[in-house]
Amino acid sequence: MLKSEYLQHVYTQVVTRDPDQREFHQAVLEVLESLDLIVDQHPEYEKHGIIETFVEPERMISFRVPWVDDNGQVHVNRGYRIQFSSAIGPYKGGLRFHPTVNLSILKFLGFEQILKNSLTGLPMGGAKGGADFDPKGKSDAEVMRFCQSFMTELNRHIGQFVDVPAGDIGVGGREIGYMFGQYRRIRGSYDAGVLTGKGLSFGGSLVRTEATGYGLCYLTAEMLKAMKGESFDGKTVVISGSGNVAIFATEKAAQLGGKVVALSDSNGYIHDPNGVNLDVVKDIKLGRRGRIKEYVDAVPGSTYTEGFRGIWNVPCDVALPCATQNEIDEEIAKTIVKNGAIAVAEGANMPCRPEAIRVFQEAGLLFAPAKAANAGGVATSGLEMSQNSMRYAWPFEEVDRRLKDIMTTIFHNAYNASVECGVPGDLVVGANIAGFKKVADVMLAQGLI
């Protein structure tokens, strides 16, 4: 329950305006609960309507996306771009192609992106976008035609100094390539900085593919070291999902000495007590776009179980949820605690429900929220933007070093903010306040009210 009448008013207004946007309400309430600790010390926030402004997107764009399948049939999807905040830099955030995409999900993601981008220390605002298009089962030609139609409308709303989209669920290098080609065709100029996540041959950055998974492990490692005197070395790790984030979190966790024993997809999960064979997973998921159950055919001693949430029954020391929002509820959280975990860090966006986070915190587990823990992807996107501006490409080791430094700094900024607010170690509060204060100060300085 919010103690501040001002924050109660803001939250009531959010819910009243958009009563069906539950994911957005959840994201806003979590941030307001953190701000409850400091709002009385900052009367300027209420005087200038800073928080009311902060929770309302600067611009919401929706449009139709007609495209033709391989049989000549016309389909029409909905496209969106939520440009939430440009206070500290051009809008920055991914594009998601998935049947579940709607305004509530994109507003929650765009809202979180403001804080995430602020925490990186790079000059990037917050945005999110996408379409209710499902690329699964579509041919390359169908995906290309959809992406070209999508960009035909989106191009007028973006630019390297205006809004720089990237990939998200359902949008990888293939989709970014198709969209960049269409943008270039329409605009007649080579604006490499308009999209990130590009191929290396046309302005992409090394480490971008690995960045979110690597960054998740870098922050988790720093959290373990600073708050518990521990490391990944010898730890059993469970990672939900088997996309880019999960795959490269698995790779980095193993490099840091951990043993990843389980991965999942939307149908079920594999358990390999000897440690997941990442080469097999990469072949299935990145090479053939297959299903995770194919793993057991290639690796003796492993098992597959239907139902992806069951993965959290596998005991572990470190839990890294990297699948989707709200996958861990209160009961699953209790199971993770009971099975002996010491740390949880969010690789997906908001994979833990609020009641699950409370279970972790009350049990004394280390917990890193997504806006801090999975900021590695957008951090490296920011580094890609820098390289595009310089017409130069850093080597892998340079980008990786910068990524590690950014993630380490994010942890310490969030931790230090939690100490200053009287809740040392509460990284949810720390990340929210550290991210918000930077943006709020800029809004006040620029008169963005």
Automatic annotation (TrEMBL):
GO terms for biological process: glutamate biosynthetic process. Residues 205-447 form the Glutamate/phenylalanine/leucine/valine/L-tryptophan dehydrogenase C-terminal domain. This is Glutamate dehydrogenase. It comes from Pusillibacter faecalis. The record marks 168 as: Important for catalysis. NAD(+) binds at residues 212, 244. The active site is at 128 (proton donor). Transmembrane segments: none annotated. InterPro entries: Aminoacid_DH-like_N_sf, Glu/Leu/Phe/Val/Trp_DH, Glu/Leu/Phe/Val/Trp_DH_C, Glu/Leu/Phe/Val/Trp_DH_dimer, Glu/Leu/Phe/Val_DH_AS, Glu_DH, Glu_Leu_Phe_Val_DH, NAD(P)-bd_dom_sf. Substrate binds at residues 92, 113, 116, 167, 381. Keywords: NAD, Nucleotide-binding, Oxidoreductase. One of its GO terms (molecular function) is nucleotide binding. SUPFAM superfamilies: Aminoacid dehydrogenase-like, N-terminal domain (SSF53223), NAD(P)-binding Rossmann-fold domains (SSF51735). SMART domains: ELFV_dehydrog (SM00839). Pfam families: ELFV_dehydrog (PF00208), ELFV_dehydrog_N (PF02812). One of its GO terms (cellular component) is cytosol. Homohexamer. Belongs to the Glu/Leu/Phe/Val dehydrogenases family. NCBIfam families: PRK09414.1 (NF006929). The gene is gdhA.
